[in-house]
């Protein structure tokens, strides 16, 4: 077990005893600690939670100062966190967030990886990813449902609603990418998952996200064909460099139906170039970051070229939000953007309804609390069959990492109902302790990211970053427990601005009021953002559900 700065492994407190002056502060403390629980974080010894170098706190001194401050923070005070370091405590009021977080933000012209790394080395910033630095990462499950939804949409678009009898090829079995095998098998399909780090493969097998490990590509293909022919779901991990293996599979004429990728391509120092042994990767990247970046980009160009080759051969191919097309393009590969990103291809219609990755964690630590909230969701939305299928499968198959948690995509007019129900359940004692309700930054109205969430917007507003800032401000104004604004996230420095919120259901009437506002206004941002961009579905939703948009009035 990795030591965490000379102490034992970090684990969030469980139960109802407070270590702070109130549940809002307690939730922030527990969720920060939970992010760094070795069961949750990819590299807890380095404060890295997921997504390449996404960290929960800048350094161990900052971590200690944050936890110390949260333990005495009053109910009318707000802690300010600047890129993982606590920099001030201000007197505010009880409706204000207890923590405000800004991570990795840089002024436009300075928003490049080399400049970011220079500042990081000076100890002035850290990479916050999306939910790492905003303390609402819940392990691989967090991405599982979104990935499940995406593969369902692929199945609906190309394969008659199921992936049974198809083979998907992908790479990257890290914190997020590790959801892919289970998401494909939940949709009935077969998947070959390449990763250069044997630990990533073993970890996913241990967590039951991945079924088997093949010794080499030959064995992987043999197992895949057998399962496909029997229309049996199967996920197969294989250790290889994707920049070599994907072109090799293409050259062999492998029968692949769907291709995507979730290596850490957004950060060229976290993508293994051809010719570098995995064991030497960290040293080589540290020794010569610029040279390594160039080599990684060239390898990504080979990788993307092969993905385009599979598309030319008839496969369904999409970028899964890791910037691999952008990096391949930087290396000079002209056809890098020949295949689409997953958001315009499958997810945008959901965003128009304010749908996105709603999630919650049981601060009690008791899995029975999540089982009760699962039942509440089924009870609240009986007409939603795919939601019911997800909640049932998640209850059976998802291995909790750290504090028990659940994710499901809910939209405008749904999240507030779920949140209020949870708050009532805390108040009545049906849940044994409060619940932290948050979401990914990858949401309908909280992100500007031209290679991902806002790729190919109808009105060309892909790079307009006012929306996430308005989103953060409206969540502060509505009573969220903590709010964050980040730059970089899943697509890398210079490529996105996004915001997050977490609101704690502690069973009080005040929390109920806050929840009603936050969980209405937060997804409401998704509806108005897409109305503004001219999406018909968003206009219908605004009309049906009374979302006020001044430009539609009068
Ligand atoms: P991670 O760092 O935890 O894991 C990345 C994995 O890729 C590691 O296991 C690593 O060994 C492997 N890898 C690196 N180079 C490789 C190569 N050349 N060949 C084979 N394997 C290689 O990252 P993560 O949290 O899993 O995220 C993966 C990517 O997906 C990131 O770029 C992230 O920003 C992006 N992402 C996308 C979404 C989405 O919504 N689609 C959400 C979150 C993250």
TrEMBL record:
Q: Does the keyword Nucleotidyltransferase apply?
A: no
Give the record's keywords alphabetically. Answer: Cytoplasm, Histidine metabolism, Lyase, NAD
The catalytic activity of this protein is classed by the Enzyme Commission as 4.2.1.49
Molecular function via GO? urocanate hydratase activity
Pfam entry (one):
Urocanase
Q: Where in the cell is it found?
A: Cytoplasm
Say yes or no: keyword NAD present: yes
Domain named Urocanase Rossmann-like: residues: 139-346
Kindly report, in one word, the top-level EC class recorded for this enzyme.
Answer: lyase
Catalytic residues (positions): 408
Task: Outline the extent of the Urocanase N-terminal domain.
Answer: 10-136
Looking up InterPro entries in the UniProt record yields: Urocanase, Urocanase-like, Urocanase_C, Urocanase_central_sf, Urocanase_CS, Urocanase_N, Urocanase_Rossmann-like, Urocanase_sf
Annotated metabolic or biological route of this protein: Amino-acid degradation; L-histidine degradation into L-glutamate; N-formimidoyl-L-glutamate from L-histidine: step 2/3
Q: Which cofactor does it need?
A: NAD(+)
Q: Which reaction does it catalyse?
A: 4-imidazolone-5-propanoate = trans-urocanate + H2O
Cofactor, free-text remark = Binds 1 NAD(+) per subunit.
What sequence ranges are listed for the domain Urocanase C-terminal? 349-543
Report residues binding NAD(+): 51-52, 129, 175-177, 195, 241-242, 262-266, 271-272, 320, 490
Similarity section: Belongs to the urocanase family.
Q: What does this protein do?
A: Catalyzes the conversion of urocanate to 4-imidazolone-5-propionate.
The record's PANTHER family line, in alphabetical order, gives: UROCANATE HYDRATASE (PTHR12216)
Q: What is this protein called?
A: Urocanate hydratase
What is the species of this protein? Streptosporangium jomthongense
């Amino acid at each position: 077990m990795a030591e965490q700065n000379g102490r034992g492994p970090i684990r969030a407190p469980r139960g109802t005893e407070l270590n702070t002056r109130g549940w809002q502060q307690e939730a922030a403390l527990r969720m920060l600690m939970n992010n760094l629980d070795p069961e949750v974080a990819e590299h807890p010894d380095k404060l890295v939670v997921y997504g390449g170098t996404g960290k929960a706190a800048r350094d161990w001194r900052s971590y200690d100062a944050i936890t110390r401050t949260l333990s005495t923070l009053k109910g009318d005070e707000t802690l300010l966190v600047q890129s993982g370091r606590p920099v001030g405590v201000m007197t505010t009021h009880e409706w204000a967030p207890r923590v405000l977080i800004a991570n990795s933000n840089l002024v436009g012209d300075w928003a490049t990886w080399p400049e970011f790394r220079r500042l990081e080395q000076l100890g002035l910033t850290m990479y916050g990813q999306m939910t790492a630095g905003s303390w609402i990462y819940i392990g691989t499950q967090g991405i599982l449902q979104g990935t499940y939804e995406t593969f369902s949409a692929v199945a609906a678009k190309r394969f008659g609603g199921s992936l049974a009898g198809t083979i998907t090829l992908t790479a990257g079995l890290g914190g997020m990418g590790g959801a892919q095998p289970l998401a494909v098998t939940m949709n009935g399909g077969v998947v070959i998952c390449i990763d250069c780090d044997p630990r990533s493969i073993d970890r996913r097998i241990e967590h039951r996200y991945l079924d088997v490990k093949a010794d080499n590509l030959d064995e992987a293909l043999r197992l895949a064909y057998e399962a496909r022919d029997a229309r049996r779901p199967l996920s197969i991990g294989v250790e290889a460099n994707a920049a070599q293996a994907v072109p090799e599979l293409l050259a062999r004429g492998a029968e692949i139906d769907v291709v995507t990728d979730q290596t850490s391509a957004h950060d060229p120092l976290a993508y293994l170039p051809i010719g570098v042994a995995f064991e030497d990767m960290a040293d080589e990247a540290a020794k010569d970051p610029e040279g390594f970046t160039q080599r990684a980009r060239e390898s990504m160009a080979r990788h993307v070229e092969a993905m385009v080759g599979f598309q030319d051969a008839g496969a369904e191919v999409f970028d899964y939000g890791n910037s691999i097309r952008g990096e391949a393009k930087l290396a000079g590969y002209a056809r890098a953007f020949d295949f689409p990103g997953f958001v315009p291809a499958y997810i945008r219609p959901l965003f128009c309804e304010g749908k996105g990755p709603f999630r919650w964690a049981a601060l009690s630590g008791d899995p029975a609390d999540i089982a009760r909230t699962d039942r509440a969701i089924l009870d609240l939305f009986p007409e939603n069959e795919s939601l019911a299928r997800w909640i049932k499968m998640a209850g059976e198959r998802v291995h909790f990492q750290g504090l028990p948690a659940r994710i499901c995509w809910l939209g405008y007019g749904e999240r507030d109902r779920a949140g209020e129900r949870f708050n009532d359940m805390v108040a009545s004692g049906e849940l044994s302790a409060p619940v932290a309700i948050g979401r990914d930054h990858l949401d309908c109205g909280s992100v500007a990211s031209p290679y991902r969430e806002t790729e190919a917007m109808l009105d060309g507003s892909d790079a307009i970053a006012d929306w996430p800032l308005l989103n953060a401000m409206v969540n502060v104004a509505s009573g969220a427990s903590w709010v964050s604004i980040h730059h970089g996230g899943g697509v890398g420095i210079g490529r996105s601005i996004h915001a997050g919120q977490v609101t704690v259901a502690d069973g009080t009437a005040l929390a109920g009021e806050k929840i009603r506002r936050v969980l209405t206004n937060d997804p409401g941002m998704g509806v108005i953002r897409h109305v503004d961009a001219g999406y018909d579905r968003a206009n219908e939703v605004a009309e049906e559900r009374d979302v006020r948009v001044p430009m539609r009035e009068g």
